[in-house]
Design a protein that fits this description.
The complex is a heterodimer of chains A (about 190) and B (about 450). Chain A contains 5 helices and 4 strands. Chain A is of the alpha+beta class. Chain B has 3 domains: about 200 residues, Four Helix Bundle (Hemerythrin (Met), subunit A) (Up-down Bundle), CATH 1.20.120; about 100 residues, Elongation Factor Tu (Ef-tu), domain 3, CATH 2.40.30.10; about 130 residues, Nucleotide-binding domain of ferredoxin-NADP reductase (FNR) module (Rossmann fold), CATH 3.40.50.80. Classes of the chains: A alpha+beta (about 190), B alpha/beta (about 450). The interface between A and B is large, with 42 and 49 residues. Chain A: InterPro entries: FMN-bd.
């Protein structure tokens, strides 16, 4: 009796694991294809992001020079658009402080855009204007990552912090957008 | 047996399914460096740990299917066995996630754990759950439990529900695997809801309904031996209470200071009718339990006042006519374990000469309800043996008194291989009887055994 139960358990479990594994490889295949599509649309995302780009105090609405699409190599599918081009001009008055909006960064899980508040040369706050929210699932990943990233940034006083485990794509996009905002603030 | 096998398969399949959730999400393909491998171990341990916790709850949920297949006591025994593995898995989950996330962020595990606690919603609840799980398992370990009264252990055990409750939010809000819109979320949610509903129905709703339906009230308390009392209760529709099912209920006497304690006892007399005595009391339906003074809680039973309301859960157990598989029957009881045999002897069908009863006690006084059993045996034509005296020192016959050390079960019941065997007594003693019964050719489905110590 024990043997019968053991064998049936082993067979049934193996079957379920196999099905799961098969489904899993299917998922990662479709992820891989998602990466290629997102990279091809990357330039579109980049250009639109560029226009949304720089800060509220900045008048550099012309900062459309951004939009380098990356992300094909990492497999994360993030086509980040850095707002460096726009930020250069915005700078000088930033030392006094203010609120600066970073570029909006496209990822395969949705758009990420953050706003940074600088006062007297110190980053006092980072607000996420938009976080990865596609597939619903990303919402939770964002919810977990955002507070961690914010705290890391506030303590490091830069965008040069580690990404959050299990939320690498969101973190990368978050930090890219933040860097753009900091550049805009001439921080 | 088939149902037992089914349960075994279900258990392993549920574990495999938990892993499959992760595999189907492409979990395996996300591992490309040690950090991710550690995180993956953490996630898998969490999935398996929670799965075991849910299984433990189901095993203790008094599901008729489970209790019918393996028996309430064995279900609980298995429940206990899962406790430690579940805790270890949950600990691995917490530690590996802290290490894995920490490595990804360049933090040490402790800082990472603190960051998770402080910054991530629902994570502080998960930490509370972890602490509670540790507390529950540690207090449940036999060695530790002996140092505390049963009641203390019981209250701690109720914390399991709090522990599970506080562990659930982070699984759905932080765990990416169970994010909105995934089928994995639905599966997990269904598992949690099904377990919760089973507990709510079988452990709360049904007992409450039975309590209101049968309106049990303490009728009188009789001292049977210096440390043994019988509690007689009257109520309504008592013949419908247990039918051919188990004879074991969980009792809650609704008196000040006692109402929150639940005690598992078997019936020591079938529900019967006491005719009305004019001027004294009307016609009453009565049942009875007989309890040995094992702990503080059972000591207080002696002071129960007539008229005290009683809440019940049950019937549970395999000590029932429904479990019969043969015409012949052999009942073997020791100490207070004799009392449930008394009820079974009264009700279960057999022809004269087809039943044998063996009663074991260190002395005559330990053969509780002996007079009643003798009377029943005379009336129904049962062969009765008294096995009295200090324990035999011979290995393998320690269930017998020293004076009968060289006898075997077959000496008392020659036809035992073709009989249902009901065994009730302390677990060490019962193990030996079971071993000897099996040696005499009794098959698993003929053995009906109920532990008599919690």
């Amino acid at each position: 009796m024990r043997i019968r139960a053991g064998i049936s358990s082993a067979l049934a479990s193996a079957a379920i694991l196999l099905v799961g594994w098969q489904a899993g490889t299917h998922v990662s295949d479709s992820n891989a294809s998602a990466v290629t599509t997102s990279s091809s649309t990357g330039t579109i995302g980049g250009s639109s992001a560029g226009s949304a780009g720089t800060g509220t105090t900045s008048d550099a609405t012309t900062g459309t020079s951004s939009g380098s699409s990356s992300g094909t190599t990492t497999g994360s599918g993030s086509s980040s658009s850095s707002g460096t081009g726009a930020s250069a001009k915005a700078g000088a008055s930033a030392k006094a402080g203010g609120t600066y909006t970073g570029t909006s960064v496209e990822t395969r899980f949705g758009t990420v855009q953050v706003q940074v508040t600088v006062k007297g040369g110190v980053i006092t706050d980072v607000t996420a204007l938009h976080l990865t929210d596609e597939e619903q699932r990303s919402v939770q990943i964002s919810n977990r990552a955002a507070p961690l990233l914010r705290s890391e940034v506030l303590s490091a006083q830069s965008a040069n912090v580690q990404t959050i485990g299990g939320a690498t794509i969101t973190s990368d996009a978050y930090l890219t957008s933040l860097q753009a905002a900091l550049d805009a603030a001439n921080f | 047996m088939f149902r037992t096998d089914m349960l075994t398969v279900a258990l392993w399949v549920s574990l495999a399914a938990a892993f499959s959730l992760w595999l189907a999400d492409g979990g395996f393909s996300t591992i490309s460096n040690p950090t991710q491998a550690i995180t993956a171990v953490g996630i898998l341990a969490g999935l398996a740990g929670m799965d075991l916790v849910l299984l433990m709850l189901l095993l203790a949920a008094r599901l008729p299917f489970v209790d019918g297949a393996v028996g309430h006591d064995r279900a609980l025994e298995f429940h206990r066995k899962l406790g430690k593995p579940a805790l270890y898995l949950l600990l691995v989950h917490g530690i590996f996630i802290a290490i894995g996330y920490g490595m990804a962020e360049g933090l040490n595990p402790v800082s990472e754990a603190i960051a998770l606690w402080v910054l991530v919603p629902d994570m502080w609840l998960a930490f509370v759950a972890m602490a509670l799980f540790i507390a529950v398992v540690v207090t449940s370990l036999v060695a530790v439990r002996r140092r505390f009264p049963y009641e203390f252990w019981y209250v701690i055990h109720l914390l399991t529900y709090v522990a599970v409750g506080t562990a659930i939010p982070h699984q759905f809000s932080v765990g990416g695997l169970f994010a909105d819109g995934t089928w994995q979320r639905w599966y997990w949610l269904l598992l949690c809801i099904a377990t919760g509903s089973a507990l709510a129905w079988f452990r709360v709703a049904q007992p409450v309904m039975a309590t209101f339906r049968h309106q049990l009230t303490v009728r009188r308390v009789v001292r049977v031996a210096p440390d043994v009392v019988s509690v007689e209760m009257s109520g309504l529709r008592l013949n419908e209470l247990s039918g051919t099912g188990g004879r074991f209920f969980v009792w809650r006497f609704l008196a000040p200071g006692m109402w929150w304690q639940a005690h598992p006892y078997s019936l020591s007399a079938e529900p019967h009718v006491v005719p009305s005595v004019p001027g004294r009391h009307p016609r009453q339906e009565v049942l009875r339990i007989t309890v040995r003074n094992l702990g503080k809680g059972s000591a207080r039973l002696a002071s129960l006042k007539p008229g005290t309301k009683v809440a019940i859960e049950g019937p549970y157990g395999v000590f029932s006519t429904a479990a019969r598989s043969r015409k012949r029957i052999v009942m073997i009881g020791a100490g207070i374990g004799i009392t449930p045999l008394r009820a079974l002897l009264e009700s279960t069908p057999f022809a004269p000469g087809q039943a044998t009863v063996l009663l074991r006690g260190r002395n005559e006084e330990e053969l509780f309800l002996n007079d009643e059993i003798l009377e029943l045996c005379r009336k129904r034509g049962v062969t009765l043996f008294h096995l009295i005296g200090p324990r035999s020192p011979l290995p393998g016959s320690e269930w017998l008194p020293a004076s009968a050390a060289h006898t075997t079960l077959q000496d008392y019941a020659p036809d035992i291989a073709d009989a249902d065997v009901y065994i009730c007594g302390p677990s060490a003693w019962a193990r030996e009887v079971i071993a000897e019964a099996k040696g005499s050719g009794v098959r698993e489905e003929q053995l009906h055994y109920e532990r008599f110590d919690w």
